[in-house]
Amino acid sequence: LTSSSSLGGSSGKGEAYRVHDPMMPTCDEDDRHRLFRNTPDPKTVSVIGAPMTFGQPFVGTDHGPKLLREAGLLSDLSSLGWRVNDVSDLDFDLLAHGAPSSSDYDAPNARHSRIVGRGCQILSDVVEDELRSGRFP
After folding, report:
1. How many angstroms separate the CA atoms of 119 and 114, rounded?
2. Tens digit of pLDDT for each residue in 89-109?
3. d(Cα 65, Cα 69) in Å, to the nearest integer?
4. Distance between the two ends of the chain, CA-based, in angstroms?
5. Is the pTM of this model over 0.70?
6. Cα–Cα distance measured from residue 19 to residue 46, given in angstroms and rounded to the nearest whole number
7. What is the overall mean pLDDT for the chain?
8. Nearest one of 41, 132, 49 to 86, comparing CA atoms
9. For the chain, how are helix, strand and coil distributed in percent, rounded to 5?
10. What is the pLDDT averaged over residues 102-126?
11. Which residues lie closer than 8 Å to 27 by C-beta, 6 or more apart?
């Protein structure tokens, strides 16, 4: 097994190619068993979308989870022998509603720190729920 990402081909013909990720070690069957020994069988991974843009200046990062799914993330995980539980995307739109508009409530060097902190707490709660259910988030 080699760690890789599935990327759409640039020619527009829809072919996919594999890119080796040198930051991720390769592993054999024994390594995989040791790495995920605390995950009960059948091995189930939960995909949790966290589409948030509040903490940074770039537009479009909230589309990341959707684009990863469209690029075949779920089928790639299945092809590695995992059952896939798609938790869907968390709804962070409500975080901005009712939040103070003044930056007086935010940390001085952090953009929308209270909204981002609340979003991280929501994500943390979902990850904890998935772990308690025996799934690997």
Report:
1. 9
2. 998 877 766 655 555 465 667
3. 6
4. 20
5. no
6. 23
7. 76
8. 49
9. 35, 20, 45
10. 78
11. 1, 35
